[in-house]
């Protein structure tokens, strides 16, 4: 086998779609140009499918549409969120594909079989915990830097256009902002050993998590409120800016002094605001 620890997705796409139906027979499967083009198509397709598919499911079945009556919900917001997200996914895919290309050519520490890991199955679970800890820490500091006065207006302000986000705001970033916040995901695989299947599953997981912290469902199981950075924490980030920069956990917000207990859990959240306005409107009639 050539020195290409080929990504499983690319292998499958080559066997079933690209080789028989897409590329002319004169384009060899191992050609760099063909690999880059294939990775670019797969990255865009995968990201858009997860974003629009799961985003739409979340918008229909999880997101409470009453939030759209909130005074800070802007005109045509959903359309604006989708436009910014899809544009961002498109531009982000270029540097992302460069990293995937390096990964499939064996420059990362991704491995194929559990037997290749000296720690076996326990190494696999350790790598998942390590991934969550590492990326949560990096995203916290990257996100916090994005709020620096000189950077904010150029890059991160676009994401904060949406004060009461819907699941479609999950990927609505300036492409540079989105790429920088996705960078820890890739960097981890270049520093620490990680199983390829886990790496792919984590790609889906991080996208779902990003959707979930924008889904307007502010409920969190009691014991997890202090630990997990959920939609209730993240909506306060959208509303009050300098709090709750975290991604999965509240750890770094606590260490960094930026933790804010979610207003939605104190009866002062967006739902409460809408309820109050509706009650006032009913009284005025
Ligand atoms: Zn922010
Ligand atoms: Zn957000």
Automatic annotation (TrEMBL):
Molecular function (Gene Ontology), one example: iron ion binding
Keyword annotations from UniProtKB, A to Z: Membrane, Transmembrane, Transmembrane helix
Domain of life: Eukaryota
Gene Ontology BP term (one): lipid biosynthetic process
Transmembrane segments: 37-63, 84-102, 122-142
Domain Fatty acid hydroxylase, residue spans: 130-257
Any matching Pfam family: FA_hydroxylase
Keyword field contains Metal-binding: no
GO CC terms: membrane
Subcellular location, record wording: Membrane
PANTHER family: STEROL DESATURASE
Protein name: Fatty acid hydroxylase domain-containing protein
Organism the protein comes from: Gasterosteus aculeatus aculeatus
């Amino acid at each position: 086998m050539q020195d290409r620890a080929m990504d499983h997705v690319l292998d499958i796409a080559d066997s079933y779609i690209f080789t028989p139906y897409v590329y002319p027979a004169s384009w060899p499967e191992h050609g760099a140009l063909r690999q880059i083009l294939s990775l670019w198509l797969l990255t865009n397709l995968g990201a858009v499918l997860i974003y629009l598919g799961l985003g739409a499911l979340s918008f229909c079945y999880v997101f409470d549409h009453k939030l759209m009556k909130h005074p800070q919900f802007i005109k045509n917001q959903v359309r604006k969120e989708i436009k910014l997200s899809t544009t961002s996914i498109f531009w982000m895919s270029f540097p992302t594909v460069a990293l995937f290309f390096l990964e499939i050519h064996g420059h990362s520490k991704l491995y194929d079989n559990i037997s290749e890991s000296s720690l076996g199955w326990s190494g696999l679970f350790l790598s998942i915990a390590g991934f969550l800890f590492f990326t949560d820490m990096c995203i916290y500091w990257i996100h916090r830097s994005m709020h620096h006065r000189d950077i904010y207006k150029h890059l991160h302000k676009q994401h904060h256009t949406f004060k009461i986000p819907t699941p479609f705001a999950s990927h609505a970033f300036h492409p540079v902002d989105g790429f920088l916040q996705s960078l820890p995901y890739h960097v981890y695989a270049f520093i620490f050993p990680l199983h390829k299947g886990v790496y792919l599953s984590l790609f889906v997981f991080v996208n779902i998590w990003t959707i979930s912290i924008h889904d307007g469902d502010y409920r969190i199981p009691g014991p997890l409120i202090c630990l997990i950075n959920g939609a209730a924490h993240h909506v306060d980030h959208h509303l009050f800016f300098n709090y709750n920069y975290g991604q999965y956990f509240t750890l770094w917000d606590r260490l960094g002094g930026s933790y804010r207990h979610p207003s939605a859990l104190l009866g002062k959240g967006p739902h409460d605001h809408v309820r109050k306005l509706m009650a006032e409107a009913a009284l005025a009639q």
